[in-house]
Amino acid sequence: MNKALRANHNQKPRVITTDKYAAKINAIKNTDGYDGVKHRSSKYMNNIIEQDHRRIKRKTNPIMGFMCFESATITIAGIEVFQMIKKNQIQEITTVLDEVEFIEQLFIVV
């Protein structure tokens, strides 16, 4: 939680909404420097933390499973990178060539 909230592309949240999973509640309470952050735990609220993986599920559900762990890892990593680029979470990317260079460095394309 500390690492996620310290990232450059994130701001200090006013409110964090999670489901009622106790580990998440404890993680928020133990986060450094976030004493003023309000925590709401609700099973039914529109929860961005819980819904962040919906893009991966949308892409992988039609596949109906992977044959091996390696192919699942590579596919999910690729989906995650493209979502990060789409959400402007990578500061160095300003042009399409920057995107290509970033992907080549990340996946060691020769």
Q: N- to C-terminal separation?
A: 35 Å
How many domains make up the coordinates? 2
Specify the helix fraction band: 40-55%
Mean pLDDT: 78
**Strand-and-helix sequence, N→C?**
HEHEHHHH
Structural classification: mainly alpha
The number of distinct helices, counting runs of at least 4 residues, comes to 6
Q: Could you tell me the strand content as a percent range?
A: 5-15%
Number-wise, the strands total 2
Radius of gyration from the alpha-carbon trace, in angstroms: 17 Å
The outline comes out as globular
**Low-confidence runs (pLDDT<50, min 5 residues)?**
none
The largest pleated sheet is described as: 2 strands, parallel
How is the largest sheet built, in terms of strand order? 1-2
Keywords:
110 residues; two-stranded parallel sheet; 7% strand
Please characterize this protein's 3D structure.
The chain has helices at 2-6, 22-29, 48-51, 54-60, 69-86, 96-107, and strands at residues 15-18, 38-41. The protein is mainly alpha-helical and 110 residues long. The chain has a two-stranded parallel ribbon with strand order 1-2. The chain folds into 2 domains: 2-50, no CATH class; 52-107, no CATH class. The relative contact order is 0.11. Helix 4 packs across helix 5. The model has no long low-confidence stretch (mean pLDDT 78). 49% of the residues lie in helices and 7% in strands.
Strand and helix layout:
Elements: H1 2-6, E1 15-18, H2 22-29, E2 38-41, H3 48-51, H4 54-60, H5 69-86, H6 96-107
Parallel strand pairs: 1-2
